UniProtKB/TrEMBL annotation:
This is Carboxylesterase type B domain-containing protein. The keyword Chaperone does not apply. Residues 2-179 form the Carboxylesterase type B domain. InterPro entries: CarbesteraseB, Type-B_Carboxylest/Lipase. The keyword Phosphoprotein does not apply.
């Protein structure tokens, strides 16, 4: 109750100020520091007012969810939310590359104490950034986008599909239309429109 009272007494600006100071203006997340993923809010107290008292994946795995047809998927370049900050920041790219093993563990959810963590980080690096590939800055940025998309979206979606399909039909989608309206100017007003990153200016549906 005291926590709720405290939060309600603050303005949005006050709540975000520390977060903003840590990351910098216009930067929603720093993948070189630690990936901040979206996680479910599980009720601390299980009473008649509680909404979610267990992790959703645990509920689904145990067959406790409603067994109805499920539509699940993601956009092709979801990883832009994290790779975006690398577009105009060589420092963030350099930090990520210098601290590759730890950053990959954060990104893919590999326990840092896993005895195979270093080996797995090396394998992942070879997949997205093969040795002697000599990628241009633009191609490197696209590869980081794919890496974050796979690690933070498609990997988890694939797992959820494998679990849910045991109980009900699952219909997956992969939205890959490129171009069109963008929120870049809203999220990054300081960026020049001509230099705003985009995977393509051509509309394509795969």
């Amino acid at each position: 109750a005291k926590l709720v009272e405290c939060l309600r007494s603050k303005t949005v600006a006050e709540l975000l100020v520390n977060y903003r100071d840590e990351l910098g203006p216009g930067i929603p997340a720093r993948p070189d520091l630690k990936i901040q993923t979206l996680v479910p809010s599980i009720e601390a107290v299980n009473d008649e007012e509680a909404f979610l008292v267990e992790h959703p994946l645990k509920i689904v795995t145990e067959g406790g969810a409603h067994r109805v047809p499920t539509l699940i998927g993601a956009n092709a370049d979801e990883g832009l939310i994290f790779s975006m900050v690398m577009y105009n920041s060589d420092e963030i790219v350099e930090n990520y590359e210098k601290n590759w093993d730890n950053c990959i563990c954060w990104t893919f959810g590999i326990p840092v104490d896993n005895p195979k963590a270093t080996m797995l980080a090396g394998i992942i690096k070879e997949i997205y950034f093969p040795a002697n590939s000599n990628l241009t800055q633009e191609l490197k940025w696209e590869q980081f986008t794919r890496l974050f998309s796979d690690a933070l979206f498609f990997l988890h979606i694939s797992h959820c599909i494998s679990v849910q399909r045991q109980f009900s039909p699952v219909y997956s989608y992969y939205f890959s239309r490129r171009g069109g309206p963008s929120l870049i100017e809203v999220q990054y007003p300081a960026m020049n429109k001509d230099s705003s990153p985009t995977m393509s200016d051509k509309s394509v549906t795969e």
